[in-house]
Write a structure and sequence with these properties.
Elements (H helix, E strand, L loop, with lengths): L4 E7 L3 H11 L3 E2 L3 E3 L4 E7 L4 E7 L5 H8 L4 E9 L2 H10 L4 E7 L5 E5 L9 E5 L1
Parallel strand pairs: 1-5, 6-9
Antiparallel strand pairs: 1-6, 2-4, 3-4, 4-5, 7-8, 8-9
Length: 132
């Protein structure tokens, strides 16, 4: 059911500093910041030959990333995103198998439908599904 790894997301306390570190120290292809108010985040994507890294920073105190950074002030891995062919079918199959979807399908940073799955159902890892 799941396809390729789309990205690994890292919550960061300073988006500009983290983007500069990837660009300057690692020589990575760093995209422009994007604000996603419906998700409560500002993001930067780093393109790698085989996947992407997403740097996440909260847009406000009510952002889910604010809570994550309060517990992890230096930042850290937030979630992994896998591609699926049909997000509604994937959701229905996973829910029928006992997984918990966190909220409804929304449009993500790439303009495609996304859905998050509860980390307690996947060995402590928050999973994002993105329709390919």
């Amino acid at each position: 059911m799941i396809g390729r790894l789309n990205h690994v997301a890292l919550a960061v306390p300073d988006l500009d500093a983290a983007a500069a570190q990837y660009r300057d120290a690692l020589g990575a292809d760093v995209g422009a910041p994007q604000e996603l108010p419906e998700h409560g985040v500002r993001v930067v994507f780093i393109t790698l030959p085989n996947t992407k890294i997403e740097l996440l920073h909260p847009l406000g105190d009510d952002s889910p990333i604010s809570g994550f950074l309060a517990k992890n002030p230096a930042g850290g891995m937030h979630h992994v995103c896998y591609e699926v062919d049909d997000i509604a079918a994937a959701r229905d199959r996973l829910v029928a198998a006992g997984a918990r979807a966190l909220g409804d399908v929304k449009i993500g940073a790439h303009g495609k439908p996304v859905l998050f799955l509860h980390p307690k159902d996947f060995a402590g890892c928050l999973i994002e599904l993105e329709e390919a």
